[in-house]
Amino acid sequence: MLKFKTINYIFALLMLGCLLWDITGSVPGWLYLILVIVYCGIVAYGCSVLSAQFFLPVRFKGKESSNSVALTFDDGPIAGKTEEILKILESYGVKASFFCIGNRVAGNPELTKQIHNAGHLIGNHSYWHKNTFDFQSATSVGKELFDTNRAIEETIGVKPAFFRPPYGVTNPMIAQAVKKGGFKAIGWSIRSFDTMIKDGSVLLNRITKSLKAGDVILLHDYCDSTMEILPALLDHIKNLGLKIVRVDQLLDENGYVHK
Question: Are 52 and 1 in contact (CB under 8 A)?
Fold first, then answer.
């Protein structure tokens, strides 16, 4: 799998080769343009596809031999929404993982405690989750991660080791902040697109059509369509003979920092 540093090295050599060629001959301008377009396309793909692990290592799937899948919910906690997800999970005896936004943790401490006390995992999902998150410097990204962990630790007494980048976007600055903070980046193998799909049957079909052991499912705990199909999804997973576990258990990683 190609990495950012490898791509930079390859394209630097190609550009150098073109420049040397240009000294002895005549390199057409369109060749330079093609190199730049291809380079930008590869980097854009690496930024937007978390599982490509282009900038940093990412855990996004467990072993099929686990006979298990993991449910993950992003962007909470949100009063009036997250509680409903918790009720459904409790009625099925299922544990999930919640990647929480720091300012929402600070604004909903009791709801955050409710998630934790129910036995679910809480991960770091940035402090503000703004659409400009990936345009920040490594220092600013690092501060968001630190502030989120502090808010979570002050609320539930433990510090997350897992970080999920907002929108699944990564770049060198985010990679640097994740590495410096000692986080493990967590992705997914099934993206539900529940923030866009409002039809419950369409959403359920998208999640279940290729569902298998080892999958990490990305959901959002504020989406009405998610709440609508969650019982049917849990039934479907059970009928497949699969277990539902927290993502730290599926990946066999420590979800919290142990002092």
Answer: yes
Reading the chain (259 residues) residue by residue, the pLDDT tens digits are 679 999 999 989 998 888 888 777 777 888 889 999 999 999 999 999 999 999 999 999 999 999 999 999 999 999 999 999 999 999 999 999 999 999 999 999 999 999 999 999 999 999 999 999 999 999 999 999 999 999 999 999 999 999 999 999 999 999 999 999 999 999 999 999 999 999 999 999 999 999 999 999 999 999 999 999 999 999 999 999 999 999 999 999 999 998 6
- Cross-strand partners of 163: 124, 185
CA triplet 128, 130, 132: central angle to 5 degrees?
Answer: 130
* CA dist., res. 192 & res. 215, Å (int): 12
Q: Which residues pair with 61 in a beta bridge?
A: 215
**Max alpha carbon distance in the chain (Å)?**
74
Q: What span, in angstroms and rounded, lies between the C-alpha atoms of 157 and 202? A: 39
Query: What span, in angstroms and rounded, lies between the C-alpha atoms of 225 and 84?
Result: 12
Rg (CA), the chain: 21
- Domains along the sequence of the chain with CATH: 4-48 (no CATH), 58-251 (3.20.20.370)
